[in-house]
Specification:
Helix content is about 30%, strand content about 20%. It contains eight helices and seven strands; from the N terminus they run βααααβαβαββββαα. It has a seven-stranded mixed beta sheet. The longest helix is centred in the middle third of the chain and has 10 residues. It has a single domain, classed as Alpha-Beta Barrel (Aconitase, domain 4). The chain is of the alpha/beta class.
């Protein structure tokens, strides 16, 4: 099973917590992902949500998604049209919430990726490979277990169970 995607790099830093992704005050107003996507990263950069385009790839440093375990921090990212987050490391709860909801988390060395770089991701059983088409650099990422690839290929855990009714195919 292979997943391939391309997109423009949107750079973030280290320790991007779930409240930076979507502010707690916004989550009190609504949990509608189509509304929340307009407020992504507003505490970091109020203009960022408006600059994000469908298909962009978030590129972060260490500890992406730290903080609370709210799934809405994943669903709001997906609602903005982002399918992939590439980071040096993820908070474990965010990582599992990403897999469960169909957001692809890729761990790799993100140093040297420039803002607006064109990235091509290939994810399969052998690992993740990111070609920075802007610089020509190839970056190796950590592989995902087969069952996680299967879940991601179906769009998340719920779509996986709707189709297979069990983990028997894993």
């Amino acid at each position: 099973m292979t997943i391939e995607l391309e997109g423009r790099a949107v750079l973030l830093g280290d320790d991007i917590n779930t409240d930076y992704i979507i502010s707690s005050s916004r989550k009190k107003e609504t949990l509608d992902p189509d509304v929340l996507r307009h407020f992504l990263f507003e505490t970091i950069d109020p203009a960022l949500a408006g600059a994000i385009r469908h298909g962009d790839i978030l590129v972060a440093g260490r500890n992406f998604g730290c903080g609370s375990a709210m799934e809405v921090a994943v669903t709001a990212v997906l609602a903005a049209g982002i399918r992939v987050v590439v980071a040096h490391s993820f908070a474990r709860t965010y990582y599992r919430n990403a897999i469960n909801n169909g957001l692809i988390p890729v761990e790799c060395d993100t140093r040297g990726i420039a803002a607006d770089a064109r990235l091509h991701l290939r994810l399969d059983a052998d690992g993740a490979r990111i070609l920075d088409q802007t610089s020509g650099r190839e970056i190796e990422g950590h592989p995902l277990p087969a069952f996680m690839l299967q879940i991601l290929s179906e769009g998340g855990l719920v779509p996986y169970f709707r189709k297979h009714h069990d983990f028997v195919t894993l």
